[in-house]
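Supplementary notes for students who missed Thursday's class. We covered one full example, reproduced here. Read the sequence, then the structure, then the short commentary at the end.
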Amino acid sequence: IAAKGEGFEPIDVRELTLLSTDGYLAYRYYKQPDKLETPFALELTATRNEIQPVVETVVAQALVEAVVTEDKSATYRCRYRLKTSARQRLTIDLPQDAEILDTLVAGQRVDLEKGEDTGSKEWDAFKVNVARSTPSDEPFVLAFVFRVPFKDVPLKGRGGNIKLPLPRIGGGAEARSAVAIQQLRAVLWIPSEFSLVGIPDDFTPARTTELTLGRGAVAYAASTDDVESWFGDSAGGLFAFTPSGKAYVYHRLGTADILNASYWRTAWFTWTISGAIFVIALILARTSWENRLSIVLLATFGAALYALRDADLVVNLIGAARFGLLAMAAYWLIHALTRPRSPTAGINFRPADPATAVSALGAVIPPPGLFETKPEG
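Structure (token representation):
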């Protein structure tokens, strides 16, 4: 609302001394009109602005943990620190046929209710009651545990890809436009005989892969205490969630529907790659050092270039090949020290035939009497 008039000045309502300060607009004037019968002229203009849509739900921190075994199921524990303007129901999409084990809202146990059909065969819609006594701008923690069945064993054979669907807060793509996730961390637990190789799409590993002689490439975390301290809220009161194996931690900004990771059986790939390198070393031992070093240089150059795309995969390959590389270097060193020497490489100290030696010396030994001197007298 705006006002126009001659001799008027807009002031703050708190400057009023003779009138109540409960209003929204206040004006003052400096002089009376020339004629008392002439009233003051004040023109008010009201403008209605369009209401812009705002984000209804803001998730400051999202922590999703999944335990994957060689069984046909995976167990999830999900915790979200969020603020929402919803006072009754909040929509959550979970993977199809998910079995809900427990749900907590601000420390209180509630039930997930079945929602409307999502129109997708991969997701089931649920609604959670977020009614609470705290103000809507105060954050609270939403936590739930569930189990997801798989048609096939997620970890099988010697390696492959594993796709883990992540819960969708707010529902599908259209409904999630009113939901903003600021930070997302995902912890994936797998058995000790497997390793995750490479970096999942749109995620960043929280731990840099380290190369050791005994354990090979190490990218898993010894404990998840740093993740717990980052979230800052314990999972006390939730259904028992027992992680096992090795923990791989990834993070990203924003939301994600799927965590797609590659894995392999560590021992089998170590035997295969190290054995292949040692066989190649046996074959190259028959060639010159120029050929050997040229092949090693080309392999190193190719690995360095591919590391620009996926350094984690290259480090895992080196870790699997470490025993073969050590055996190759040792075998080439032994082969170089024990190979027979060339006849021209040194001086031959074998004794010559006496007849040959005498004939050779005959050319230089003077005949008898050449240097004899006759006695005087």
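Commentary. DSSP finds six helices and 21 strands in the chain. The CA atoms of residues 100 and 146 lie 4 Å apart. If anything here is unclear, bring it to office hours.
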